[in-house]
Request: fold
Amino acid sequence: MTSQCLHGQTNLNVYATGRDLLKAGVIPVADMLPETAYVKLMWALANHDDSEVEKVMRTPLCGEMGDRREIDV
Amino acid sequence: MSKPQVVCGIEIHQQLSTKKLFCSCDSELVESDAKTYYRRLRPTTSEMGEIDRAALMEASKKMGFRYQSPKGVSCLVEMDDEPPHDADADAIDTVLTFASMMGSTIVDEIHFMRKLVIDGSNTSGFQRTALVAMGGELQVNGRSISIQSICLEEDAARKVETKEGEVTYRLDRLGIPLIEVATGPDIRSPEEAMEVALRIGTLLRATKRVKRGIGTIREDLNISVPGGARIEVKGVQELRLLPLYLETEIVRQNMLIEIKDLLLSRGVEPLPMEVLDVTKVMQGSGSKVIKSALKERGKVLAVRLPGFAGTLNGDGGRLRLGAEMAQRARVHGVKGIFHSDELPAYGIEAAEVEALKTHLALHDGDAFAICAAPAVKAKAALEAVVSRANEALLGVPEETRDPMPDGSSRYSRPLPGAARMYPETDVPPIRVDEERLRRIRENLPELPEEIAQRLVREHGINAQQAQQIVRQGYDLLLARIAVDYDLASVAATLLLNTFPELEKDGVPVQDLSEERILAAMGRLKEGRFAKEALPALFREMAKGMDVDQAAESLGLEALDQDQAADIIRSMIASRSDFVKEKGMSAIGPLMGPVMQELRGKLDGKAASDLLKKEISSFLKDEEKN
Ligand SMILES: [Zn+2]
Reply:
């Protein structure tokens, strides 16, 4: 699960639908943009064991994702 | 068994040195520039359908809040613009580790709850807290003290400034994980409170994941004396004052019980909430407070306190219900009140006091309180005085109190009601599985006793020193000094003897960070100065200088052997008759002047060796001539 918002990120804990998605096995990837996530997923599937793909997708490797946004006023 | 003098339990809040609890900001306090924004908080009925009395009182103060958000240590989560992230796994592991060390029963699932806090110190209006373990005990001087609960919670923002109607907070502290350890009500004396706090602090530090230094550990004391009530003294930062807070609270509660008995014996009845306008009576008063209040179009209001004479400030200042009333009044934004036990004074004349008594139809044995301020505030303040007077008929009111630096405490707010906690729905429950517990149990840290033994074994300090070092939380620092500079025994003396002596002299040694202490030890090792210079050096460093600046300002310069020998030779030459007469036994008498000349520049032992050598060669030369 990604977000198309440039400065937004996914948090599936907050609403019931999100929690259902988590239960269904969806992997939230913080603020990674969809295109980036798509490429990273291809790379992860090609280079890692299936059981490790979730961990790889959720771990920042080279600045492609992050979970900190500071105040901007 | 004799009746206990006091029943006390402690809650210890210790900051962890992990990332923040619900985001990946650093858990550091910084003084850098920060963006700021302004907000107000309003109480709403909680999900449980009630408004809390403590929350209501805060709301009645109508405050606005300004938040500083420094880079790196605060993000949108601290702003409450973004929901909390998953709870930090290291922080949870640390609490599980501590709970295992205490033999506590760990919960199957960790559920975060919201605790209503609307003084603005939490941007969300609540603090998140989770129960992690219950039960367990610790032994302190042969007595068993039970552990009631071990929780994991987030720290609040820190208060930077309070102005009329506005409080400024800094968000660096908000969200730092806190482990909260609550003991049962098993503590029976002020000294024992201190011992229990020290022991828990030592065990917490044994996890090696806790922060160090002033403000990183805070204690709440729950205190009641027989016939008194539960009082919470909240947020004690200075451990050495802990026994004093307990002592003063015991005295305060017993004093309030005495006042209750006195009032009941006088047949005093609960008072009506009746505030009277006495502006006319006080119109021409010379009191500065009254004059300035009237100039601002304020009023002088009064309440009658029949039967209260001598309890507000009586028996030579020992009975002090007046001070309690004044603290309640100040919560409503007035500077204070005047009460009849302290008048005439403060520019209010005896004739004015008599006029007030007549106007209020008071008799001997009756008291009154007045307040000069804008009418709305003065009325609220005096109504608080009447409430407090009525509570005095019941004994000790339950309160949360703020610790003051002099060991006393001041009214803060009523004890919070039971409706304060409700579930945090944005953080999913965390299952504590067997696998995780096994890993924790297999990697339990060294116990304090084991650390002390290791310090003796590896760094050669004596057992008693080692125990003290661990108790006071210096073990990591001592080990670093021992490993980096091989100065374990110098460090032990410094930390256990020199620092307490300096502290007694009012030198703020607690402000010296470990890094700065290490830097000084490094310079000592390089021979920049001698260990005798350390007390004076740290005295300078505590003023904020770094080690090199301090050494320079003290004129410390390490002497090499040749320079030192020159100085000693010239001292011997100027006392040549004495040295010739005494021979080698001149060493003793000369050591004093020599050390005076060389203190801090040459080690004592080296100076004595050098003096011996130089006297010996001086005497040899004399023989030749
Ligand atoms: Zn943050």
